[in-house]
Each structure stands twice: as C-alpha cells, then as structure tokens.
Design a protein that fits this description.
The structure is a homodimer of 436-residue chains. Chain A contains 10 helices and 30 strands. With 436 residues, chain A is α+β, with helices and mostly antiparallel strands. The first copy, chain A, has a 6-stranded antiparallel β-sheet. Chain A has a 5-stranded mixed barrel with strand order 8-11-9-10-12. In chain A, helix 1 packs across helix 4 and helix 3 crosses helix 6. The two termini of chain A are 40 Å apart. The relative contact order of chain A is 0.12.
Chain lengths: 436, 436
Amino acid sequence: MNVILLSGGSGQRLWPLSNDIRSKQFIKMLTNEKGEVESMLTRVYRQITAVDGGAGITIATGKKQVSVIKNQLGDRVKVCVEPMRRDTFPAICLAAAHLRDVQGAEEDSAVVVCPVDPYVEDSYFEALQELAGLAETGGANLYLLGMEPTYPSEKYGYVIPESSQRLSRVKTFKEKPDSAAAENYIAQGALWNGGVFAFRLGFLLDRARELIGFTDYHDLYRRYGELEKISFDYAVAEREREICVLRYGGGWKDLGTWNTFSEAMNGNTLGRAVLGGNCEDTHVVNELNIPILCMGCRHMVIAASGDGILVSDKEQSSHIKPYVEQMEQQVMYAEKSWGSFTVLDVQEDSMTIKVALLPGHGLHYHSHEHRDEVWTVMSGRGRAVIDGQERRVKPGDVISMPAGCRHTIFAESELKLIEVQLGEDITVEDKRKHRL
Amino acid sequence: MNVILLSGGSGQRLWPLSNDIRSKQFIKMLTNEKGEVESMLTRVYRQITAVDGGAGITIATGKKQVSVIKNQLGDRVKVCVEPMRRDTFPAICLAAAHLRDVQGAEEDSAVVVCPVDPYVEDSYFEALQELAGLAETGGANLYLLGMEPTYPSEKYGYVIPESSQRLSRVKTFKEKPDSAAAENYIAQGALWNGGVFAFRLGFLLDRARELIGFTDYHDLYRRYGELEKISFDYAVAEREREICVLRYGGGWKDLGTWNTFSEAMNGNTLGRAVLGGNCEDTHVVNELNIPILCMGCRHMVIAASGDGILVSDKEQSSHIKPYVEQMEQQVMYAEKSWGSFTVLDVQEDSMTIKVALLPGHGLHYHSHEHRDEVWTVMSGRGRAVIDGQERRVKPGDVISMPAGCRHTIFAESELKLIEVQLGEDITVEDKRKHRL
C-alpha cells in the first residue's frame, strides 16, 4: 500500500521538548520493545513497515521539518515538501501528485492518508491495510477509519455511520461538539474521525483537478501559494456520497499535552532523574546532562531541554500555550539532516555551539559576513574545506575562520566539534551559501 | 572591634546551588537595598562594616573555601585558613593566634566570634558591638548573645540566664533538646545559643595555651592536625564561671533549608523564571540561562544550577541530604580566587569549559600529563605564557596546548575563554603546577 503520513503541527504544547523546529512527533520519549527510546515518527514508521514490509511511505510536510525527518529516518525516506503551509487538502493533493508523477505510482493503486502522531498499537496498521484493500476493491470512493469513542471528547470531529456493522456507509459528519452534543452523537453510534482515509490514487487526483485544476506535480508545486487553505474533510470527505467507515476499537491516543504524553511513557523518568521524598504520579523527562531531583511532587510533569524547564501540575499543563508564546525563544537544540547542534553558551559578543555530524554528512559550504568562527574538533575524522583548500581533520585540530571565509566540514566517522562564534552581530540570517 | 567570622558547612541541604565547594553562605540569592543580589557572606561583611567601619574582620575557614571567599570579597580580606577541619575551638584558637601573631592585635582588645551564616538585621551587629564593649570593660571573661526564642526549636542549644534582665549571668547551658524539653527551658526564660561570643583576646589565648599548649600561630598551625575536635561551647563556654549573656530580640534566622532560605528571598523568583497557571507560595532560583516555566505549583521550591535541578515540596526539602549524598557529583560551576569556571559539555574523551578571569588575575602556571587543551578567547585582553613564551591575547585568538605544555593566562580586563580539553583520562588530579 501507499501511505501518506501527514506531518504538521507546532511545538508549543510540549514545550520545552518541542519547539519551532521540533514538533511533538520528533520528541524521543517513547520506549520500544527493545528498550530503545524513539519518537512518534520513528515509531509509526517502524509499525507500518512491520505490518507491510513493502509499504511505500511518503511524508507530507513543510520545509522546516525536512531536516529532522531525514535525521531520524535517514536520507532515503520519501518526503513531499510543501513550499508553504496550506491545509490538509492541498497537502494531500501535492503528495498524491508526487506519488504519480515523481514516484510513478499507478492510478489504480490504493493510498492511505494518516496523521504521523497517533499513539497506537500494531492492530491500527492492520486496519490501515484492510482500508487500503477496501479502497482497491470495495466499490466506494472513500473509506475512513472510525475510532470507537471512550468518552464524549470535545477535541475530535465525529462520524455517524448508517449501521452499527464493522463496515458501514457514512450517514453524516459532525464538527467538534460540546460535551452534551458529543454524548448525543455517541448514543447514535458515532465514531471519532481520526483523519485516516483510503482511496484509489486516481479518485483523489480527479477530485484535485476538479477543485484546483493543474497538470502535474511540478505545476501544482509552482502554484501552491495560490491555493485556498481547506481541509480534506471539508473539501472531499463531507461532500462524498460513496463513502464508508471501518470501525476500529483498538488503542488510539492523541499525545497532544504533557498530561497525555506522560501516560505513554514507559516508567516515570527518562534521562537523569530521581523521584524521592514521597513523589506520587509524577513524570520527568530530562534531556539535559545534569540530574533532576524531585521531592514530594504530586501529579506533576517536569520536562527539561536546552530550551528550558517546565515544572507543571498535570492538569495545568494543558494551558501552557500562551506562556510559551510569550517566552523569548532561542532554539538551543536542533536535529538537522546532517546531524545536530546544541547551543552551550551565549555571551554578548560570542556564542558557543556543539556540532555533531553524522557519518557521510557535511555542512553546506557557507560564509558569514559579521562573525568569525573557530572549530575545535573533539572526536571523529573527516575533511574540511576552507576557502577552497581541503584538509583532513582529527580530534584536537583547530580551524579559525575569519568573517567572509568560506567553509565546510564533512564527517567520515561521527564527528563532534565545538564552534565558537565571535562578533557583535551574531544571527542565523548571517549565512551565505556557496557552491563547492 | 575584631570579628572572627566562622565559615564552615557543607553544601548538601541547599543543593543544587550549594556543593562541595560552594557552601550556603556563598550562594547569591539575597537582594540588598540597592537591588543587587548578594550572598550571606557579602551581606554579613557589608553589615559589619556599616555598623563599625573600623572593624577588623578575620574569616576562619578551611582550604576549600579560600578561593570563593576571595572571589566574593576581594584579595584584601583577612582569611585564617585551617590546614584541615577541626571543630570550632581549634578554629577560634588559630584565628586568635593569627590576630595576635600575624595581625599584631593587642591582648587587651575585644574579639567577637560569630558564624558567617545568620540572616539578621543591622541591629544584630549593633549588639555585637555592645558585646565587644562589654568584653573590654564589663569584668566577666566571656559574653554571649542569647536570641529570644520564637518557638520551641529542637535545632539550637539553649542558655538559661540567672535573671530576666537584658544582661545577666549565665546559670547553665542546655544541649539541643526535644520539643517538650525546649518548651520547659523557654518557660524558665531560656535563650537560643547562636554561637556568638565576645572576649578579650588575652583571655582566649590563655585558655588555648592551657588546653593545647603552643607557642605562637605558626606552632599551632604546624600541630593543627594533632588537635582534638572539640567545640568552643564544650571546651570554654560551658566551663566558664565568669560568663554573661546579652539578650537579643531582633530578627535572627538560620537559612539552612530551602524552606527557610526561600523566605529570605525578595520576591518569588530569581533568574529566568515565570510563575503561571495558579502557582501559589512557590519560589524559583534559576542560575541557568534557560527559562523555567512553573504551572500550578503549590508550596514548592525550584532551584537550578549547572550542578542540577531541584523540584521540591517546601516541607519535603528539609529531607534532601540523603538523596544528594547518593548523587553522582561533578562540580559544574565554581568561583575561584581568579574568577570562575563553568562546565559546558562532557563527552567521553573531551570536556568543554567556560573560564572567566577577573581583571588583574591569572591561572597558576601548570601543565597536564594526559590531556591536550585548546583555548578560544571570547572577550577581554591579557597575556598568555606558553612553555615560557609570552604573547598578548585578544578575542578570537586560539591557543593550542598539547599534553605536557606549560601554560597560564593573565587577564588585564575581564577575560572569558572557552577551553576544550581532549584526552582519554580527564581528571582534576592531572595538573602539575610550575614556577613561572
């Protein structure tokens, strides 16, 4: 099957582990069966591949997330990059066009669209596979997965099926309701709409051409900025008459707040943390390399990263957004396609950064107008190019790059270095890329 | 008056702001009238000098604290350094001998002994001055300050005076009691013994020679290791018959736990911190340069430094000691006589440190056997000596020092640098000092 994983979202609700660059699906705080820590993205990718080894996965996302996706899944992952954010309908159209025109998929083949961030069991992906099979042979135009509700949530849209059978035609869709309306829907047999759909590629492309009008992927990409922001639900699902819903009763969670996210943790702590002195129902995630000691904490979540430290009552943690919006934000840690960086120290006229390069990767060849830089190699081997001159580098090597100097470094084995930036005007904008 | 300030103590109860090197009296979290943040040490020093501009202050302390005392008070402060820790009686004897034999004080002059860490109003120092006057002319051998108790504390020893007058002879001393005994003592008019005494220098030196037997300061210093660990209370005060107590009713607090320490804070936060979402009776001290966001915290104290992060219920915070003892401790920040250092990053075979040198100060001339080091100067000017060769340094300069290389750096203006240490065996012990 073809799977389009929708990767969007902003990073405010799970601050300080999420930020502008690292949305919640990239936070490594879930533990797999081998005891390895993984993100929602790597978990979902692993789960799909386990159920269908031949699945063709395309991640539909914006420019900001490409680096971290490649960092976590490797360079071979297929990513369909929106030039700017539009809603889910344009994003799915672009990914569908990418499937046909770039990847060569057949119009008869089934496509499953699924958000990247549900926290689910493997049975969920078996249901996706069933949904893909229905799209190919079931006769309707659109199949969606309806989650059996466990409480009258106000956070989800609802689907009301015509019957209570496992597979049923859809009677109607309902927007996110208040609690009373939700109870009423559930009494009518309603299911949660989790944004999971399957269709034949040709069906979606026909709808897309009707509504947008474009020739191929490249044409659509070029004109993407002109497209209306509209959701797939609104543009397609709610207008479709040949639509069925498949009932899904397995575990399905939206880990959107610290309160729900901490429930998915394996144990109460991740990273250096000690729960002492009568702590109760308290979770700690610590990405810093200093210990956290909690004493007498009750129903709390504590999260620490290079961006900041959150100490919150679990219930209160859902109200975090306005506080994070007001906070002066400097991204202190980011995963890039070539590795990662961590800001270690910020002074008035200098900044110190730890850079870790993945084997086989390098920085862009670039220069800065307003700052000098000094690299001290801590570990690993590779080669640097400084103003066109190539040299090999090893631990202990020091490279000084005055403003204007063009420079890059490639890692042969994992390479870590300390970069000291010096200048009165240090900004991320002061970076000019060059051809090597 | 001569004042001997006793500076001892370990750093566990106010972890992570205190550590092996930085005892509680050195933590900068009190705010003076000018709005400047100061430590207990600088506060007490300032208060004594305000009451008696001519006071001769000698700080009696151990080797570990000399650097931080000089960092906070400057090089001119008089410090009497015990070669190893003994109890208060040997420490006071050594400081008394230092006063006479090194500083040339008269045996007739009054000496006040006072711990460095009470949190008090200026009236306390007026009482010390009165105590000094009594020691010179009052006729008794020993005068002590008795604090009027505010509750039946089990933390302090008690003094029972003969009368309820402001100045009275002492009837007897009582060890730290249980709560019931404390109530009984208070009913008899008992006062807290805060360890504050005044005497003529000659009186104490006579007692010291009787009990220890020594010729002068240098003799006592040499034999310090042989001395019995014994408190001044036990060795002198409780055996003295010519002893009076002066009643003191002003504010007097022992800021020994986070609970009491936070009460002395001016406001609820120090450093980058936001109290949001219905926080109540919560204090935050943040020495890190990343923000702390608290939501729905009640009766809590949150403290963060390069050594770690404490998140504690205020009541529970008094039970911190065993947890801190178990914690793997690496000092991440230390104030030294020449400035300070901060550990920024620790890797398997490297460590990155920020070094800040005070103007006019330099490091020891030293070398390391098992590690290379690289300095990148961030700000300030000065000169470095590398294997005997002197060179001037400015921001952006890089100095590489392979293992075995002798090196030092002197700051002319405040000088900050990043030091990358590289080697398989990086330890504080690997340091050899050389003559320049």
